[in-house]
What does this fold into?
Amino acid sequence: MAVNSTRFNPKTIDTVQWPVQNVQAFATTRYSPFDNCASYSLTPFSAFNLGDHVEDEPLNVQKNRQQLQTLFAPNKQIQWLKQVHKDQVITVNSHSSVPLTADAVITQNKHIVLSIMTADCLPILLANTQGHEVAAIHGGWRPLSLNIIQKTVTQMNTPIEQLCAWLGPCIGATAFEVGSEVKQIFVQQGLEFQTAFTQIAESKYLADLHSIAKIQLQKSGIKAIYQHSQCTFSTPERYFSYRREQKTGRMATLITCL
It folds into this structure.
């Protein structure tokens, strides 16, 4: 992964490990990716909050985003989204300074950095093996239940056999409690989704977002699936978690063609 800063600290990000060429892709944590550089957000958003919708001071978020921007070449701009937990997929050919309303975004433009914000939801990256086309998906249970993965794959120009997927850190299978209605939504899509749920009480289940996404990716035809399976809820020293903290910051998962 190429970065555009000598101050970059690889210990404060999650790198994307997959056999894809010519892309820059990584996920932030709750800490600044720079050595000897301040993170501006204060408790409960400390320290490197990138979400502008969580009641953090707007100037602090702007400063954190400006730091993040310097990890990319000067001719690249981060495309931020307004995520609404639905299934809208957009293809971006030029950068917009105004966040675009969508939960999945696709580009072939080397000057655009795609970004998904999360604090328990599953960030999903897609790319063809040559890095000519990339996508980023906000994999909360609601977008997943609306088949946002398949809708993203369908909108991409890459043949399905050339796509790779990466699943980032999210709330884990031992922490994500849901009701029986959530399980039923997925099981109606296929009985194989039963394996992604573990019953813990009457009408209460633990859901495995990684397993749900992998089943959907496989059903779409994608076989090359890689993951970073650390649990955001169970790792407060590294990740923001909405389910754990309610009022908290947001991390970003980013990808761009080189």
